[in-house]
Amino acid sequence: MSTATFAGTPVEVNDEGFFVDPTQWTKEIAIELAAADGIAELTSQHWQVLEFMRKEYFEKGTGPTVRVLGKTSGVSVKDLYLLFPKGPAKMAARIAGIPKPKGCI
Amino acid sequence: MTDTINPEKIHPEKIHPEKINKVSIIVSKGSLEGIYPALIMANGARAEGMEANLFFTFFGLDAVNKKRIDHIKVATVGNPAMHIPTLIGGLPGMSGLATHMMSKTMEKLDIPPIHEFIEMIGDTGCGMYACKASVDMFDLSEDDFVEQIQGIITVGDFYDMAAGGQIIFT
């Protein structure tokens, strides 16, 4: 665990860069994290996925799998991979400021 | 003689292993337990942002054969880990029953049925190919396969495609 500074805010992250405390997340942080991961601009579809992931995390205690995202976020699996090329569940979870989703699917 | 051994000097790759960036997975079996691990590994690779290819050969072709994809069954005979005596496992309907029970558990764990899984993996951008030798042997053609199959390729093509990555045989 270590402290990183995003958008001028110190944040607790684990070794892989995932947030330890999702309440420390802000939209400004998401924009900076996305840029660092190669997403120049977060589109409305990106935000739709990020907000869905945060909602799922706070309701269920873990981020959704790609299958769940594809079925319930309103964005198809194909589009998820276009939006988050480095693997939607993991990459989107990091940008959304939630821990890495558990599960193999 | 008094030098201390620094493991990092001897095996630097073991201390800081390079990430796997690409996998090519061969599916050679047509049973439920023969197909799922490969699909889970391919899907997981894409979810981690790795490049992935699936190569279906021999009975593994059933996983992408339109007529067979919805009828993949778990083997109840010759599978000691099923804990079903061979003679009972061989009774008519046993394989279907075991498959039904297993499918219910899998759905609960958010593991999709094979047909949906193949579609989903296709959507993740994983490459899927059928082995030419097997296709010829079973007298099949491109029309026999689900749309996710991008081509019928030779073993040479497969090795070209797998270049620079890891190959997993299942």
As for the number of domains of chain A, it is 1
- Strand content of chain B is 5-15%
Tally of strands of chain A: 2
The amount of helix of chain B comes to: 25-40%
Which chains have the largest interface?
Answer: A-B, 19 and 16 residues
Helicity range of the residues of chain A?
40-55%
CATH architecture of chain A: Orthogonal Bundle
- The percent range for strand residues of chain A is 5-15%
The CATH architecture category of the domain at 20-71 and 111-169 in chain B equals 3-Layer(aba) Sandwich
What does this structure look like?
The complex is a heterodimer of chains A (105) and B (170). Chain A has five helices and two strands. In chain A, strands 1-2 form a two-stranded antiparallel sheet. Chain A has one domain: Arc Repressor Mutant, subunit A, CATH 1.10.10. Chain A is 47% helix and 10% strand. The model of chain A has no long low-confidence stretch (mean pLDDT 89). Chain A is mainly alpha-helical. Chain B is an alpha/beta fold. Chain B has a domain of 111 residues: 3-Layer(aba) Sandwich (Hypothetical Protein Ychn, Chain: A), CATH 3.40.1260. Helices cover 39% and strands 14% of the residues of chain B. Chain B is built from eight helices and five strands, in the order ααβαβαααβαβαβ. A five-stranded parallel sheet of chain B has the order 4-3-2-1-5. In chain B, α3 runs parallel beside α6. The longest helix of chain B is centred in the N-terminal third of the chain and has 16 residues. Classes of the chains: A mainly alpha (105), B alpha/beta (170).
SSE layout and pairings?
The complex is a heterodimer of chains A (105) and B (170).
Chain A: E1 2-6, E2 9-13, H1 27-36, H2 44-60, H3 66-72, H4 77-83, H5 88-95
Antiparallel strand pairs in A: 1-2
Chain B: H1 7-10, H2 12-15, E1 22-27, H3 32-47, E2 51-56, H4 86-89, H5 94-108, H6 114-123, E3 127-131, H7 132-137, E4 151-153, H8 155-162, E5 166-169
Parallel strand pairs in B: 1-2, 1-5, 2-3, 3-4
